[in-house]
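thought: user wants a sequence for this fold. calling inverse folding tool.
action: design(structure=
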């Protein structure tokens, strides 16, 4: 039974699939930002902690490290950014707190040294309590950049927003941001790419006939080959684009444009083969 036998035209089918497709694309974008990336990040962080062999590296509220009577806590590790929310506590041999430092963030330097930015120092080592604010303070040694789980995580574990921030951080510090920015455009364009493929499937499905129809199997095969072809086209464009220095927005847009063009061609072909007097609304 074909779609015309059901009284369902191409336009009607597209109207039926529009809202679910938009809803799925929005859900995919939200999941990529708030669900998938955080879960992947948590898994990679736990794996790093368990494999580190450092008993002073604890999985709790942030990351903790102990060196002698000095305790360091990093509460936040935005993907690809400097550690934020730094707390440093120093105790004497009796366990009495001698100094506490709270810093907004840290810049990682060589030899495991950190430059604490916007730090507030409370010191009880003398007869009087000292409380002061400094714009920067060099301390260490602490973790190196390769040992920080968040800074060593893969791009897959980073949300689109985190990838964009990371790319901007690399650009502003004069580092190569091409791979990170390409990963950002990949994730940012995924909802639109998915919606375009759903549109193509809907157009190809119009008048496909019943499962007993001889053309049914060919249409299923054509749909599968089209999806695989689009995937390989996008991978080839990524590789060639990075080698040739092509615009990254164009690299992710070309496969979407190809899918939309195929959808338009299938729709035009279906309209051309529709019998006169058939329902088109």
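)
observation: tool returned 281 residues.
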């Amino acid at each position: 039974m074909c779609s015309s036998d059901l009284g369902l035209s191409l336009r009607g089918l597209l109207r039926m699939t529009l809202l679910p497709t938009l809803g799925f694309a929005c859900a995919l974008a939200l999941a990529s930002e708030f669900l998938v990336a955080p879960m992947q990040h948590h898994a990679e962080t736990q794996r790093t902690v368990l494999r580190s062999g450092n008993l002073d590296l604890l999985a709790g509220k942030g990351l903790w490290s102990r060196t002698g009577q000095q305790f360091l806590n990093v509460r936040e590790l935005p993907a690809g950014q400097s550690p934020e929310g730094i707390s440093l506590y120093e105790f004497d041999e009796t366990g009495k707190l001698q100094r506490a430092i709270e810093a907004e963030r840290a810049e990682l330097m060589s030899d495991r040294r950190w430059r604490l930015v916007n730090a507030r120092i409370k010191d009880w080592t003398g007869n009087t309590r000292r409380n002061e604010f400094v714009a920067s303070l060099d301390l260490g040694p602490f973790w190196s950049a390769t040992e920080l789980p968040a800074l060593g995580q893969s791009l897959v574990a980073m949300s689109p927003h985190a990838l964009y921030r990371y790319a901007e951080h690399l650009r502003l510090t004069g580092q190569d941001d091409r791979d990170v920015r390409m990963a950002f455009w990949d994730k940012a364009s995924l909802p639109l790419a998915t919606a375009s493929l759903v549109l193509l499937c809907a157009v190809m499905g119009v008048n496909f006939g019943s499962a007993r129809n001889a053309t049914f199997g060919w249409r299923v095969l054509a749909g599968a080959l089209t999806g695989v072809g689009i995937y390989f086209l996008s991978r080839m464009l990524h590789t060639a684009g990075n080698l040739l220095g092509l615009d990254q927005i164009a690299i992710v847009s070309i496969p979407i444009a190809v899918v939309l063009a195929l959808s338009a061609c299938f729709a035009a072909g279906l309209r051309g083969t529709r019998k006169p007097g058939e329902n088109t609304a």
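thought: summarizing for user.
answer: Here is the designed sequence. Confidence is low (pLDDT under 50) at residues 1-7, 55-60.
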